Amino acid sequence: MTRSLAVLALLWSALPLRQVAFGQTAPGAVWYLTGRVILEDGVPPGERVDIQTICNGQGYVAAHTDSKGFFSFRLGAAGNRTLQDASVGLADGSFGRPVTAMGPPPQSTAQTTSDTQQQTSTSDSQQAAPAPAPRGGINDRSLRNCELSARLPGFRSETISLANRRTMDAPDIGTIVLYRLAVVEGRTVSVTTLAAPKAARKAYETGLAALKKGKLADAGASFEKATNLYPEYAGAWCELGKLRLRQRRPEEARRSFQAAIQADPRYLDPYLGLSALEAGDRQWRQLADTTGQALRLAPFDYPRAYYWNAVANYNLRNLDAAEKSAREAERLDTRQQFPETWRLLGTILADGRRFAEAAVQLREYLLLAPRAADADGVRARLAEAEKLSAAPAQVQPN
């Protein structure tokens, strides 16, 4: 009898250990997910790939692949900040936050200043948000509206549903295959980064480690050391630019992004950082040029860049170009993560007196963002567009 009780006690004490090992049963627990990304010909991509989770329509960049295509991350970890989404960033240095809206587009050139200020304040309130776990904590049912995909410019990704994952499942979710869409010139990793000398690379990695610990001054010194040792270090220049944005030093950020582009004109990140800076400064001609170059390098994966391009052309009164970019942003934004695009396109169409089409866009915006700060104003514009679209056309006298 004593021996039986001892065996039962041993088994009982072992049960929580298995749960802790998988980290998937207790409220607020952590799920470890691992996997690999390969191209359709069976080889790893050869450059960093973003791993994105989509839960209830909200996307987060949760991890990046290594040089062999492998990735791992913790889903639901407290304080587990989202990594940077390549199509997101603001002039306040808001890199590494969830994919969120930037705020309302300008309604006219005269209104641009206040709109941009609203964009910045909106971003500031969202900057510190960690990647959230599904509501109610992690359990067998919490991931039923979640899926996983990879993202690399010029490629279409397979999607892996997390809906059927259970408590004791192994963390390996399998292999995600990328299928090439077309030839894309842009790269998410600079070739100069791969060719950096050992001392420069060490300084760069030291800077990243300091940045992770919140030691901004140390990170800046390390990135500067890396660029001094290796002036063609586009990755270090880009990280320095992001840091200077975060420190509210826009001119230094601009010079860093421009140095990164000069070092590697096909590296995408500095174009996105420079675009964020130009959008915040309302430099519409420069923003149109920078986003145009970024979209020529990678025309398939950046709805935010198309949105910025549309905003720039709208303020330059190039309405045809603005409409084209806004429609492309809508087409690429399959998750409808940037509802302000619909509002912008409605404004463009209304300016062109295409009121019925404008009403469709404004109506969709209100469906996507019913509680937006400008929802009442958009409802008033929608009512006006509906009224004008129903009015008989005025016949011009001969």
Question: What key attributes describe this structure?
Answer:
single chain, 398 residues, alpha+beta, 4-stranded mixed β-sheet, 4-stranded antiparallel β-sheet, 8 strands, 12% strand, globular
Distance between the termini: 109 Å
Mass-distribution shape = globular
Number of helices in the DSSP assignment = 14
> Ranges with pLDDT <50 over ≥5 residues?
4-28, 77-136
How would you describe what is shown here?
This protein is of the alpha+beta class. The protein has a domain at 33-180. The chain contains 14 helices and 8 strands. A 4-stranded mixed beta sheet has the order 4-1-8-6, with no helix packed on it. The longest helix is centred in the first third of the chain and has 21 residues, at 2-22. The relative contact order is 0.10.
What layout of secondary structure does this protein have?
Layout: H1 2-22, E1 31-39, E2 50-55, E3 58-64, E4 70-75, H2 112-126, E5 146-151, E6 155-157, E7 159-161, E8 172-180, H3 191-194, H4 198-212, H5 216-229, H6 234-246, H7 250-263, H8 269-281, H9 284-297, H10 303-315, H11 319-332, H12 340-351, H13 355-368, H14 375-390
Parallel strand pairs: 1-8
Antiparallel strand pairs: 1-4, 2-3, 2-5, 5-7, 6-8
Helix pairs in contact: 4-5, 5-6, 6-7, 6-8, 7-8, 8-9, 9-10, 10-11, 11-12, 12-13, 13-14
Summarize it:
This protein has a domain at 33-180.
